């Protein structure tokens, strides 16, 4: 061992020197060179910093630098995040997205163009004018549809979601809501009144019939029975007959 190399190192170093820092790392740690001023020192980390990717070898695990336009990468040829001004597409960082794709400034990626999609038209509404379906001859009817997929920045915009056309109906007068309601209420009251009157008349009739029946029964109990007139021929004495 070189006199400047120490084995009692800190920070995950297996071997180190006062001038160069870590020379080798403990198992499973990554070795990376960090620049401090005009010199580089070795450090041992559990994961590689931004702009580097980890490689494992039997003798050493180390961090290798990504391409200049990559912010993070999986391998040198496969970026996972690009630096400012570049768009990620299939592991590469591009200044401009290929044809058929568009740049997403939020995710900084090249994505597929999405066009607007709508549902089917609804049936036409009843013919109306100023919110009413009566009191006119010419009006309008409408139909609507919903947006089921909003477009991306370069996608086809959404068409109109409502249509209107003129319509003709047979003119009819509008029934006033208040008057119609009042008439219905009066009819209901009259019906209830007639039913109550019929019920009272039926009750009076039953009471009168019951009273007449009771009166006849009382008269039959108090009135004496009439005696039959005697038969004159039978009541005459024998002598009177002979006389």
Automatic annotation (TrEMBL):
Range of residues in the leader sequence: none
Region (Disordered): 169-243
Organism: Dryoscopus gambensis
Limits of the Spondin-like TSP1 domain: 116-170
SMART domains given in the database record: FU, TSP1
Database matches in InterPro entries: Furin_repeat (IPR006212), Growth_fac_rcpt_cys_sf (IPR009030), R-spondin (IPR051514), Rspo_Fu-CRD_dom (IPR043601), TSP1_rpt (IPR000884), TSP1_rpt_sf (IPR036383), TSP1_spondin_dom (IPR044004)
Biased composition, class Basic and acidic residues, residue ranges: 175-219, 230-243
Family: Belongs to the R-spondin family.
Localization (cell): Secreted
GO annotation terms (biological process): positive regulation of non-canonical Wnt signaling pathway; Wnt signaling pathway
GO CC annotation: extracellular region
R-spondin Fu-CRD domain boundaries: 11-110
Keyword set, alphabetical order: Disulfide bond, Glycoprotein, Heparin-binding, Repeat, Secreted, Sensory transduction, Signal, Wnt signaling pathway
Molecular function GO terms recorded: heparin binding; signaling receptor binding
The protein, known as: R-spondin-3
Record-linked Pfam families: Furin-like_2, TSP1_spondin
Known partners and oligomeric status: Interacts with the extracellular domain of FZD8 and LRP6. It however does not form a ternary complex with FZD8 and LRP6. Interacts with WNT1. Binds heparin. Interacts with LGR4, LGR5 and LGR6.
Function per UniProt: Activator of the canonical Wnt signaling pathway by acting as a ligand for LGR4-6 receptors, which acts as a key regulator of angiogenesis. Upon binding to LGR4-6 (LGR4, LGR5 or LGR6), LGR4-6 associate with phosphorylated LRP6 and frizzled receptors that are activated by extracellular Wnt receptors, triggering the canonical Wnt signaling pathway to increase expression of target genes. Also regulates the canonical Wnt/beta-catenin-dependent pathway and non-canonical Wnt signaling by acting as an inhibitor of ZNRF3, an important regulator of the Wnt signaling pathway.
